[in-house]
C-alpha cells in the first residue's frame, strides 16, 4: 500500500534515527514491521511469525529478513538507501544476525509493535530493551512537507464522506445499514476502511461503539466517527454528530450541552500552537466542559497523533508534558457522553503551524439535522 516518497526522504529519516541514537547513548534500534518500517523504508513487509527487523546503529543500517522475502527489499528503498539486506534461512539464528555484534548489557530500542516473544528473546541475550516509540518520537512526530500534504489529502477524503452522511441517516434504518453505506463511500476515497462508528441514541454515549442492528428513530442524536487509509499509508479520522429530524423541545438540554462541546473544541483549536504542552492543551479543552458542569461526561483524552499510524504520538492527555511543535499532526476531539441516554463528539485533525494550527477537516461543527435524507443545521 505504501507509496514511496523521493529517496532522499528516507535517507534523511534514517540518518535522523542514527543521530538520535548517538545523542541518547543507545546502541541500536531494532524496528519490526509496522508503522516504523513504513516510515523509514516505505515497506509493508509482513513475514508473519518469522523475525524481521530494520537494525539501526550509529554507524550501520541493516534489514534482517527471511530469505523468501528478501528480493522485494533489495529492489525497493532499502537497497537504494544504503541499507544492507541480510537474508536468513529457516533454522538459522536470525536474532544473532540482528544483535550478535552487540555487547552484553547493550541498550536496544525496540518497536512498540514488536511481538513479546522477540522482545523476551532479546532480553535473554543480556540486552536492555527500551521502547523505541519513546526514544525516536522526535523523528516521527514532526511531519515533513510531503507528510503534511498527505495529511491534508486524507482530511479532504474523509470530509467528502461526511458531507454525504446526512443523506444516510433516516428514521427506520439500522446503524448497520448506515455503516454498510459508509464503508462503500470511504473506499471511494481511500484504499482501506480503518473503522466506522455509528452510535445512535444511547449508543452515542459509548465512545468506541461501532454499529449494531439498532433501528435509528426520529430525534436520535448520532455520533459518526470514520477513518480510512490512503494509498500512501496515511490515515484519516474525523467525527461529526448529527440529529435525525431535529431535537424535540423537551430535550433542549442536549442543545445546550452540544453548544458547550463546540466551545470546548474551538478553545482547543485556538490554543493549539507550538510551545503549549500536550497536557496544557488537554486542560484547556477539558476545562470548558468541566466549568459548564459536564466534566464527569468527558471520559477520554483530548487527542492523539496521526500519520502512518491511526493513533501515535503526541497524545493530548493529562500527564504528558511534551511541548507541541510545528509540524505535529493530531486530533482535537472532545466529547460529552451521558450513559444510557446520548452522546456527542467533534473531532478535527490539525497540523501545528508556526503560529497556531491548521484544521484539516472543514465540514461544519454544528449539530446537523437530517430531514428526509438532507442535512440542515439544528
Automatic annotation (TrEMBL):
Segments forming a coiled coil: none
All copies of domain Peptidase M24, residue ranges: 151-354
InterPro entries to which the protein is assigned, alphabetical: Creatin/AminoP/Spt16_N (IPR029149), Creatinase/aminopeptidase-like (IPR036005), Creatinase_N (IPR000587), Pept_M24 (IPR000994), Peptidase_M24B (IPR050659)
Domain of life: Bacteria
Domain Creatinase N-terminal: 13-138
Protein name: Peptidase M24 family protein
Natural source organism: Corynebacterium nuruki
Lineage of producing organism: Bacteria, Bacillati, Actinomycetota, Actinomycetes, Mycobacteriales
Amino acid at each position: 500500500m505504501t507509496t514511496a516518497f523521493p529517496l532522499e526522504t528516507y535517507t534523511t529519516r534514517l540518518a535522523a534515527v542514527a543521530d538520535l541514537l548517538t545523542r541518547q547513548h543507545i546502541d541500536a534500534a531494532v524496528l519490526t514491521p509496522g508503522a516504523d518500517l513504513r516510515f523509514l523504508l516505505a515497506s509493508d513487509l509482513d513475514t508473519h511469525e518469522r523475525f524481521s527487523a530494520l537494525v539501526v546503529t550509529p554507524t550501520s543500517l541493516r534489514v534482517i529478513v527471511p530469505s523468501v522475502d528478501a528480493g522485494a527489499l533489495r529492489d525497493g528503498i532499502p537497497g537504494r538507501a544504503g541499507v544492507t539486506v541480510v537474508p536468513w534461512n529457516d533454522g538459522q539464528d536470525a536474532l544473532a544476525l540482528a544483535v550478535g555484534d552487540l555487547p552484553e548489557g547493550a541498550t536496544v530500542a525496540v518497536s512498540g509493535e514488536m511481538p513479546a516473544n522477540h522482545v523476551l528473546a532479546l532480553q535473554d541475550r543480556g540486552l536492555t530493551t527500551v521502547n523505541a516509540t519513546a526514544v525516536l518520537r522526535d523523528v516521527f512526530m514532526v511531519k515533513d512537507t510531503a507528510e503534511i500534504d498527505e495529511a491534508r489529502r486524507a482530511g479532504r477524503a474523509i470530509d467528502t464522506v461526511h458531507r454525504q452522511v446526512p443523506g444516510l441517516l433516516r428514521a427506520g434504518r439500522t446503524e448497520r445499514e448506515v455503516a454498510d453505506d459508509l464503508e462503500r463511500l470511504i473506499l471511494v476515497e481511500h484504499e482501506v476502511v480503518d473503522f466506522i462508528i455509528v452510535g445512535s441514541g444511547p449508543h452515542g454515549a459509548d465512545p468506541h461503539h461501532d454499529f449494531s442492528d439498532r433501528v435509528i428513530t426520529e430525534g436520535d442524536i448520532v455520533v459518526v466517527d470514520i477513518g480510512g487509509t490512503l494509498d500512501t499509508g496515511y490515515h484519516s479520522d474525523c467525527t461529526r454528530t448529527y440529529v435525525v429530524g431535529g431535537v424535540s423541545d423537551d430535550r433542549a438540554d442536549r442543545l445546550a450541552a452540544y453548544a458547550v462541546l463546540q466551545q470546548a473544541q474551538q478553545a482547543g483549536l485556538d490554543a493549539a500552537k507550538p510551545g503549549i504542552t500536550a497536557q496544557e492543551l488537554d486542560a484547556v479543552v477539558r476545562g470548558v466542559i468541566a466549568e459548564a458542569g459536564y466534566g464527569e461526561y468527558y471520559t477520554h483524552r483530548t487527542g492523539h497523533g496521526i500519520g502512518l499510524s491511526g493513533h501515535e504520538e503526541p497524545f493530548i492527555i493529562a500527564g504528558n508534558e511534551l511541548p507541541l511543535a510545528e509540524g505535529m499532526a493530531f486530533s482535537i476531539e472532545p466529547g460529552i457522553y451521558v450513559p444510557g441516554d446520548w452522546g456527542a463528539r467533534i473531532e478535527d485533525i490539525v497540523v501545528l503551524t508556526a503560529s497556531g494550527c491548521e484544521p484539516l477537516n472543514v465540514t461544519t461543527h454544528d449539530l446537523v439535522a437530517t430531514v428526509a435524507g438532507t442535512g440542515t443545521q439544528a
